[in-house]
Amino acid sequence: DFILLGFSDKPYLEKTLFWVILIFYCLTITGNLVIILISLKDPKLHSPMYYFLSNLSLLDLCFTSSCVPQMLVHFWGPEKTISYTGCAIQLYVFLWLGATECILLVIMAVDRCVAVCHPLQYTTLMHPKICLQLAIFAWGTGLIQSLIQSPATLQLPFCSHQRVDDIVCEVPALIQVSSADTVSNEIQMSIASIILLVVPLIIILSSYIAIAKAVLRIKLTSGKKKAFGTCTSHLLVVSLFYGTVTAVYLQPKSRYAHEQGKFLTLFYTVVTPTLNPLIYTLRNKEVKGSLIRL
């Protein structure tokens, strides 16, 4: 078994975090289920944007459920252990869904770019069949990434080093406790981080630069406001997710054990999935209208 240390040196903090995480988890389940439901039920939301949004909501539901229940158990009582099998399953699922979200956010940015920059060709370019293929590509790429990196991490010898200084089974934390030379694993993690974090972030920023240029050419103030409103919500989601994940996976190995890393992990596993439906709902008239009709 592995022992996930988490915040075991601060019992008072663990009890506070238990209630905070429980509230956020309930909000995550409710908010994301509502978005999936209205995307399926309301014909007005049968568009590529809401198709990808419902995929993101499903992803967030699975992502939080892969780690939050275990966090709650560890924060509530003295039990901090997780079996090797449990840790392996969590690592596979965690990497799969995390990598999928990286790709899905890129697809959503490109979708908004096409909608704003090429409105007349939008229905042709973002045909339902193409949207389905893009969704499969996102989920498939995440799965491939997990099937490559997870076995490489789990094959490391851990010997008597069972104390993992983290709140979940993550690659950086497991690399740190291994008794073997982990240079190749660190290189693999860096390459994966560049492919799944840096490159997608460049594509997303490029898409929004193109959107900004197109919006500035719109003469109607109402048109500008609507375009900026729709895109700002997505950009906010991107900033929250990429900002925290990049800080954890691109920081040096020697600094990973610090408390900052644990709080950042807590943020993108618990807080971000809760904020996603709130950001899209509160900043989107179509979603609010659909909620009222429902």
From TrEMBL:
Residues 31-280 form the G-protein coupled receptors family 1 profile domain. The chain crosses the membrane at residues 17-38, 50-77, 89-110, 130-148, 191-216, 228-251, 263-282. Keywords: Cell membrane, G-protein coupled receptor, Membrane, Olfaction, Receptor, Sensory transduction, Transducer, Transmembrane, Transmembrane helix. The keyword Repressor does not apply. It is a multi-pass membrane protein. InterPro entries: GPCR_Rhodpsn, GPCR_Rhodpsn_7TM, Olfact_rcpt. Coiled coil: none annotated. SUPFAM superfamilies: Family A G protein-coupled receptor-like (SSF81321). One of its GO terms (molecular function) is G protein-coupled receptor activity. Its main location: membrane. It is found in: Cell membrane. GO terms for cellular component: plasma membrane. CDD domains: 7tmA_OR2B-like. Putative odorant or sperm cell receptor. Belongs to the G-protein coupled receptor 1 family. This is Olfactory receptor.
